[in-house]
Inverse folding.
């Protein structure tokens, strides 16, 4: 969660209604709501969903964990360790890219294109390719974990560098120092609060990447444990994995946020969506270069990736191979029909889920504004839920609604709901 989310979660409730609940501590309200949620969960599992293999009662989840503690703790430790390595390497790469963008402004657009491309890579499609490159072991989960954090940390670090005080930069320039000294003495120090905001978001993302990587054939970890539990319809085990993942992802998120507040107590709330856009150079030629340069960089990066890792031609496809498969090969019409048909289905499902998540988040934000005590009780819980990796939520959704359009729509809605809620509420409280 970004500092915008923190500001939203901690924003003082509007006390126009004079309700006594407005004077209750948010922590107390959240604790009461949490206890009520657990009691309702237990009641539904014991009555409505009893014997349905959909919902495990909290008491059953706890009993399952203590029946096989070694199994769960070993796999949890393996996934957490993998995520930690990916978190380290991915954030180092992101900070290096942000530093290059700040030190060499002409490279900003191209480097940003690389970071955005990494962010848009579908993990499910990339994971098998990485497995071919890295072979058996932890290489694929670590790589996916690293890729999952690059963009968010890059954006946060770049924002921090750009927020360096101009007066301090003027002092450095007045002493005849260059860009490198200004970066080291001013921009790097000024970026620390924003970096912590990015690292906070990156922690759950790293865990998500590690678990997805384990889905591709790891021998240990929560990912492969989830696959086996789904295949065997072990509902209690799925819920244990979901609860443990929630605790770890949320714990990492909270811990990094607390560390940032301790080390940077002077820092105000930051909006990671406020990264200044690079100035557009005038002239048609400059605009054309700005448009084509990122595309060229991505293509060069694509070819360099295939060349460095020496992937076999059977698996490695260049941009021209993709073009030929879609437009010039003998079976291109059939390929286009298949690919674009599937793409249309995906876009339709995505649109339904996005609209559902957007409308429900906007409605919830309005309710929070009208009923302040409800916001104080539920917003911290919503913020915590936002840090749960979607790959852990997916099996739970499948248990409830099965496989199909409704499942996919629900997953997309969940992914879009929490960030939209936090940002809509933050915007409403500023008016």
């Amino acid at each position: 969660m970004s500092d915008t989310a923190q500001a939203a979660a901690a924003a003082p409730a509007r006390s126009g209604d004079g309700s006594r609940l407005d004077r209750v501590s948010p922590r107390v309200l959240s604790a009461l709501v949490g206890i009520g949620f657990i009691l309702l969960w237990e009641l539904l599992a014991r009555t409505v969903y009893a014997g349905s293999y959909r919902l495990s009662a909290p008491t059953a989840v706890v009993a399952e964990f203590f029946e096989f503690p070694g199994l769960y703790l070993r796999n949890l430790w393996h996934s957490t360790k993998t995520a930690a390595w990916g978190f380290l390497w991915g954030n180092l790469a992101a900070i290096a890219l942000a530093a290059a963008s700040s030190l060499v402004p002409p490279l900003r657009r191209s480097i940003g294109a690389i970071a955005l491309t990494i962010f848009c890579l579908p993990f499910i499609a990339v994971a098998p390719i990485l497995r071919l490159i890295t072979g058996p072991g932890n290489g694929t989960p670590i790589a996916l974990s690293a890729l999952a954090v690059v963009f968010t940390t890059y954006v946060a670090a770049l924002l921090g560098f750009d927020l360096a005080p101009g007066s301090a930069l003027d002092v450095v320039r007045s002493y005849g120092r260059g860009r490198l000294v200004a970066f080291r003495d001013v921009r790097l120090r000024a970026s620390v609060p924003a970096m912590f905001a990015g690292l906070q978001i990156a922690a759950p993302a790293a865990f998500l990447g590690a678990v997805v990587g384990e889905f591709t054939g790891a021998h240990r970890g929560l990912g492969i444990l989830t696959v086996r539990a789904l295949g065997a319809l072990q509902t209690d085990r799925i819920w244990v994995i979901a609860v443990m993942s929630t605790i770890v992802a949320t714990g990492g998120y909270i811990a990094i946020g607390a560390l940032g507040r301790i080390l940077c107590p002077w820092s105000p709330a930051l909006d990671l969506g406020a990264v200044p856009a690079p100035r557009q150079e005038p002239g048609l030629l400059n605009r054309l270069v700005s448009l084509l340069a990122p595309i060229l960089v991505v293509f060069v990066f694509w070819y360099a990736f295939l060349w460095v890792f020496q992937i076999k031609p059977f698996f490695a496809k260049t941009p021209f191979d993709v073009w030929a498969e879609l437009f010039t090969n003998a079976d291109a019409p059939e390929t286009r029909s298949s690919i674009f048909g599937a793409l249309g289905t995906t876009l339709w499902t995505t649109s339904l889920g996005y609209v559902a998540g957007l409308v429900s988040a906007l409605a919830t934000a309005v309710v929070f504004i009208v009923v302040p005590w409800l916001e104080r009780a539920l917003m911290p819980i919503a913020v915590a839920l936002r840090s749960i990796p979607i790959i852990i939520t997916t099996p739970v959704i499948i248990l409830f609604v099965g496989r199909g359009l409704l499942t996919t729509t629900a997953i997309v809605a969940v992914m879009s709901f929490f960030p939209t809620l936090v940002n809509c509420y933050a915007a409403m409280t500023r008016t």
Summary: The mean pLDDT is 81. The chain has two domains: 1-54+317-431, 56-279. The CA atoms of residues 80 and 144 lie 13 Å apart.
